[in-house]
Inverse folding.
């Protein structure tokens, strides 16, 4: 038999990886989420975990807290990242790469180390122990800001300059050009930034534990507790799936599933 | 975990393992002639560094060298993680070190291999001295015997739970009782444990404060004997009925409002750096913090166990079913040698259950704490540890007041503390679920009103801006500049 090499075979390593570390674990999670132990100790199919999640006020509360923290953290990330990226992308300044690196630099440090350092800083200004929510949000923003800057920056960088000239030619002022041309065209960057910040902010419980002194429970922490302390893998898996659905919905809302053609030049203008 | 579950987890992990092996050329058969002992212990829970100056010994290497074996040493972070791991890989460890209630649970579920008879005689079948059986403290030995654990578990470290505090900001008198946490002056100054069982204990003592104190009074009046007093305390502290749990819930919610936060690890350093002034902690962690604070910040910290009662906890070695019993027992005897026990105490700060067959550990205690005749003054405190080292030992000595209120009492509680102590039993599943649900509720936080208002305001503003930029021109009629004329078609 002759071995025919085709480019498709280059995908085999990734396919193996995909099956072992993505598909199988996912199936296990789904399996655990929709099963429960009956009195004799056997596993049976059940919706009890699903019902259990939505009939528990404390889980609703945790969901609410997670979404709240994520929303606010995402908002502040956009608020900080957009003007910064705009200036960096439009300045034409040769050293803007250096500046960008400076903002990305924290990502090269270990994340736990950064949060521990931030904890000491917050203690110095007297926030630690007094404003658990504020601290957690500060931590999330600090942690995920680069994930917001990068996509917006790249989007603004590849923005077609002729469109701006055209806008000016047609008599639009700087403000109108921004609201009618630059902003709509940079939205795909903002959207992908939002997904990259909003989603991990709901689960990154190292931040809420370190900076909020474990006074705040977010979904990630709840999952961890169900797997370790409560030793109830079924509910833990169910919460993970609910989180997945939320992620899916947020991707859907921010257009993460649109293909490139839809996002390509000018599509957001009209 | 049930069969199907186990099958799934096992097959999944096998698959992963198989994938990993494909890359790393699994297996080292050539070394398989050397016996292997697989030890599963808490993180940072054994002296594993050679340092003569500080009195550390690398116990694992020393054991490997002396017995010509290989030790595969791995660690866990919580009892539950260890338990789950054992369920999935039931025969992959020879020796594990769970805490008291987990040992009870494992014995109850028949997961533990008993020790052989020759573990309990003076020498084992190879004629080697049984350091554990001959050297374990009489107090610990009796505790194990009355509870029926002797056959299955060998005590390792033990201690109490109490408050570590900074005497400069909190007075000793203001921390006499568990209920003293309920004090304006401690607002945002104390931490609770992010561990359901430990904080549950605290809250039960908090709720039954009066009942526990009246037991204490009855003991003082001679109405209760030593044994009855301890037994009654144990009964109160192990209540898990719905009324208790809901009272605990109310108490914890209240405490959470005034607490700095929950922690399992950061509290040690937060005491040293002075972020908090009271830390609800295990005595071993207290010993660590007291040492660090003195070394690094030249600061004195004290440890106290409240007057109602305290929790006696211990960690012990058990052999999971299918483990290598003979080799595991060799290892137990090795780490139970007095010099190993002392090295462990030097290294991790926790208190070993070993007294030594000839009270070698007592000598170390006397060396470290006992005051010489000429140094004794009116502040010195008389310490009696004969309950731990056994009747007839010379465990009566004077210690200076800093040690007696700090390091020494953290390492060795006095007999009156022991008398009012309780061991926490493992809870039945129903009670456990009740407590877990209570804990989840306590740990959950409310969505702050300010945040909701903020989100609504921002969303409103964004929608308004969007509408104005999108449809603004329909509402705002731009007047033509002067000189232009509107062309009618």
């Amino acid at each position: 038999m002759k071995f025919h090499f085709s480019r498709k075979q280059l995908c085999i390593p990734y396919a193996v990886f995909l099956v072992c570390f993505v598909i199988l674990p996912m199936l296990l999670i789904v399996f655990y989420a929709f099963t429960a132990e009956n009195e004799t100790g056997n596993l049976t199919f059940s919706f009890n975990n699903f019902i259990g999640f939505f009939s528990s006020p404390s889980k609703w509360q945790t969901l609410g807290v997670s979404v709240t923290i994520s929303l606010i953290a995402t908002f502040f990330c956009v608020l900080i990242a957009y003007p910064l990226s705009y200036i960096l992308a439009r300045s034409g300044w040769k050293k803007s790469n250096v500046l960008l690196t400076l903002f990305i630099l924290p990502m090269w440090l270990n994340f736990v180390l950064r949060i521990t350092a931030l904890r000491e800083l917050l203690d110095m200004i007297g926030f630690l122990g007094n404003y658990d929510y504020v601290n957690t949000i500060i931590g999330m923003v600090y942690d995920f800001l680069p994930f917001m800057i990068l996509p917006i920056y790249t989007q603004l960088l590849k923005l077609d300059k002729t469109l701006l000239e055209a806008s000016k030619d047609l008599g639009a002022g700087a403000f109108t050009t921004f609201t009618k041309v630059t902003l709509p065209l940079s939205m795909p960057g903002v959207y992908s930034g939002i997904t990259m910040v909003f989603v991990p902010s709901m689960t990154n419980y190292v931040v809420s534990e370190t900076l909020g002194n474990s006074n705040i429970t977010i979904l990630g922490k709840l999952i961890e507790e169900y797997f370790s302390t409560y030793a109830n893998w079924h509910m833990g898996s169910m919460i993970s799936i609910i989180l997945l659905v939320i992620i899916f919905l947020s991707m859907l809302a921010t257009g993460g599933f649109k293909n490139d053609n839809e996002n390509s030049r000018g599509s957001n203008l009209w | 975990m049930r069969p199907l579950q186990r099958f799934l987890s096992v097959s999944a992990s096998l698959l992963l393992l198989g994938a990993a092996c494909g890359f790393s050329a699994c297996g080292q058969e050539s070394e398989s002639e050397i016996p292997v002992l697989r030890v599963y212990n808490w993180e940072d829970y054994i002296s594993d560094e050679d340092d003569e100056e500080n009195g550390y010994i690398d116990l694992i290497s020393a054991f490997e060298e002396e017995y010509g074996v290989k030790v595969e040493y791995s660690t866990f972070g919580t009892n539950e993680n260890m338990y789950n791991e054992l369920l999935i890989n039931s025969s992959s460890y020879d020796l594990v070190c769970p805490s008291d209630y987990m040992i009870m649970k494992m014995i109850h579920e028949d997961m533990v291999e008993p020790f052989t008879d020759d573990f309990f005689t003076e020498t084992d079948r190879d004629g080697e001295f049984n350091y554990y059986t001959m050297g374990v403290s009489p107090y610990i030995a009796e505790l194990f015997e009355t509870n029926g654990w002797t056959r299955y578990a060998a005590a390792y470290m033990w201690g109490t739970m109490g408050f570590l505090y900074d005497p400069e900001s909190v007075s000793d008198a203001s921390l006499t009782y568990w209920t003293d946490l309920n004090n304006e002056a401690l607002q945002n100054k104390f931490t609770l444990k992010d561990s359901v069982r430990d904080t549950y204990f605290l809250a039960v003592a908090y709720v039954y404060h009066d009942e526990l104190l009246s037991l204490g009074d009855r003991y003082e009046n001679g109405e209760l004997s030593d044994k009855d007093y301890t037994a009654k305390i144990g009964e109160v502290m192990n209540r898990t009925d719905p009324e208790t749990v809901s009272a605990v819930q109310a108490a914890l919610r209240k405490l959470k409002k005034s607490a700095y936060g929950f922690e399992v690890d950061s509290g040690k350093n937060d005491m040293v750096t002075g972020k908090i002034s009271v830390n609800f902690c295990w005595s071993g962690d207290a010993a660590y913090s007291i040492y660090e604070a003195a070394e690094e910040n030249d600061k004195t910290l004290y440890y106290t166990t409240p007057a109602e009662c305290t929790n006696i906890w211990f960690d012990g070695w058990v052999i999971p079913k299918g483990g290598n019993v003979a080799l595991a027992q060799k290892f137990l005897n090795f780490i139970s040698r007095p010099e190993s026990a002392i090295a462990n105490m030097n290294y991790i700060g926790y208190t070993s259950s070993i007294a030594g067959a000839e009270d070698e550990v007592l000598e170390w205690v006397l060396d470290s704490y006992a005051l010489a005749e000429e140094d004794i003054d009116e502040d010195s405190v008389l310490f009696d540890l004969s309950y731990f080292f056994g009747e007839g030992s010379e465990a009566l000595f004077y210690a200076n007041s800093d040690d007696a209120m700090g390091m020494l009492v953290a390492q060795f509680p006095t007999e009156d503390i022991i008398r009012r102590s309780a061991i926490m039993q493992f809870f039945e599943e129903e009670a456990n679920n009740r407590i877990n649900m209570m804990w989840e509720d306590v740990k959950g936080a409310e969505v702050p009103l300010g945040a909701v208002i903020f989100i609504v305001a921002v969303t409103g503003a964004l929608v308004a801006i969007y509408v104005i930029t999108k449809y603004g021109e329909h509402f705002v009629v731009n007047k033509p500049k002067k000189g232009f004329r509107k062309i009618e078609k």
Remarks:
- Residues 67-263 of chain A form a domain with the MetI-like fold fold (CATH 1.10.3720.10).
- Chain A touches chain B through 46 residues (CB under 8 Å).
- The first strand of chain A starts at residue 35 and ends at 37.
- Residues 165 and 193 of chain A are 27 Å apart (CA to CA).
